[in-house]
Amino acid sequence: MTWRVPRWLPAVKAAGGVALILFAVALAEGDPVQLGVAGAVCAGLLVWAARDLLAPVRLAADDDGLTVVAGFARRVRVPWPQVEAVRLDTRPRLGLRSETLEVDTGDALHVFTKADLGVPPADVLPHLRRS
């Protein structure tokens, strides 16, 4: 089974970056600081979108273990015996509830959100629980 970034998300991030820079050019009136900040944020959004294109599958599970994305776009294979815990972390914040799926391998904690998985983390948890 695999879970991936929704296909539309990189396009939204890239469009947001382009819209931001166009908005800044239209309103900055030649102010280099505003243009510089807008350019930096635009670059960040484009890099974030590129990560989604380079490593769209964030989590994969099979009979032998898990494959997770670590760092920018590096894939790490984790055999089931190395998985110490898989849990759902739910926290209220600003009147909203956020859920993350945590995969603890002892050496690293891999955290996934709905934006990483394409589905709510609670829907992925039963597939990763090993009996």
Give your account of this protein's structure:
The chain has helices at 9-27, 32-54, 114-117, 121-128; strands at 2-4, 57-61, 65-70, 74-79, 85-93, 96-104, 109-112. With 131 residues, the protein is of the alpha+beta class. The protein has two domains: 2-54; 57-128. It has a four-stranded antiparallel beta sheet with strand order 1-2-3-4. The model has no long low-confidence stretch (mean pLDDT 92).
Structural domains: how many: 2
Helix segment tally: 4
State the shape.
elongated
Question: Which class of secondary structure composition applies to the elements?
Answer: alpha+beta
**Oligomerization:** single chain
Order of helices and strands: EHHEEEEEEHH
Question: What share of residues are in beta strands?
Answer: 25-35%
Calculate Rg over CA atoms: 18 Å
Secondary structure: elements and pairs:
Elements: E1 2-4, H1 9-27, H2 32-54, E2 57-61, E3 65-70, E4 74-79, E5 85-93, E6 96-104, E7 109-112, H3 114-117, H4 121-128
Antiparallel strand pairs: 1-2, 2-3, 3-4, 5-6, 6-7
